[in-house]
Amino acid sequence: EDIIVCRNVNKWFGNFQALKDINTTVKRGEKVVIVGPSGSGKSTFIRTINRLEEHQSGDIIVDGIELTKDVRNIDAIRSEVGMVFQQFNLFPHLTVMNNITLAPMKVRRWSRSQAEEVGLELLNRVGIPEQADKYPSELSGGQQQRVAIARALAMQPKVMLFDEPTSALDPEMINEVLDAMRELAYSGMTMMIVTHEIGFAREVADRIIMMDEGRIVEESPANEFFDNP
Ligand code: ADP
Ligand code: ADP
């Protein structure tokens, strides 16, 4: 069952075409890793899938919802698709717990106690249950990124997008974030991941998409990709 469908997707920034005729589908539960040189459109591609960027032609359908210009449509997509960025993008003036509960309380209208119960479960799941009352600036980069993962999961998304989630981290913190992502992968989440962590890709990916100059230049099952270099 296809949960993400991209058909002939094109995107321009002014005169510059960042995505060229992107065609791909992602099945429910699939893990897709996107690789390619800097500037090849990887980030733009996944940002287009949750409508952080707008495509100008072609179709993107996520869990049956077609991305259109309609604002209500954007809200629907954002609550289906969680995203984790290179820079953790936490709200600096909110505690870890309040970072996590903000969106579910506002968008899903959960009570504070209900949201905090889920928040604590998620902090346990990413391995930092004791950090709930801290502010982001009091945490290490690896801890902040795990909060960002928990925050995205709190909205109970159907798909998780990751844009170089470990690229801003000191080397010793990369593994703790990859561990949280592994756990998520084994739980059956549908994931699209831009990363340079090839060992992680080899372990977790079902499929590799390689981009260059805005196009998908190769798309293959992970085992084929890694066995035929
Ligand atoms: P990657 O993630 O593969 O490094 P990006 O998707 O970030 O590539 O960028 C693809 C191309 O689009 C790059 O040439 C980049 O400079 C350009 N680009 C990205 N965002 C914008 C923007 N907001 N305005 C203009 N050009 C952009
Ligand atoms: P990433 O590859 O992780 O997206 P970038 O440094 O390429 O990081 O982009 C960071 C931000 O700057 C993004 O919001 C992107 O859209 C914007 N950006 C990237 N390239 C350009 C560009 N050439 N002109 C304007 N904005 C850009």
From TrEMBL:
Keywords: ATP-binding, Nucleotide-binding, Transport. The keyword ATP-binding applies. InterPro entries: AAA+_ATPase, ABC_ATPase_HisP-typ, ABC_transporter-like_ATP-bd, ABC_transporter-like_CS, MetN_ABC_transporter-like, P-loop_NTPase. One of its GO terms (molecular function) is ABC-type amino acid transporter activity. PROSITE patterns: ABC_TRANSPORTER_1, ABC_TRANSPORTER_2. Pfam families: ABC_tran. Residues 4-229 form the ABC transporter domain. Belongs to the ABC transporter superfamily. PANTHER family: AMINO ACID IMPORT ATP-BINDING PROTEIN, PHOSPHONATES IMPORT ATP-BINDING PROTEIN PHNC. This is General L-amino acid transport ATP-binding protein AapP.
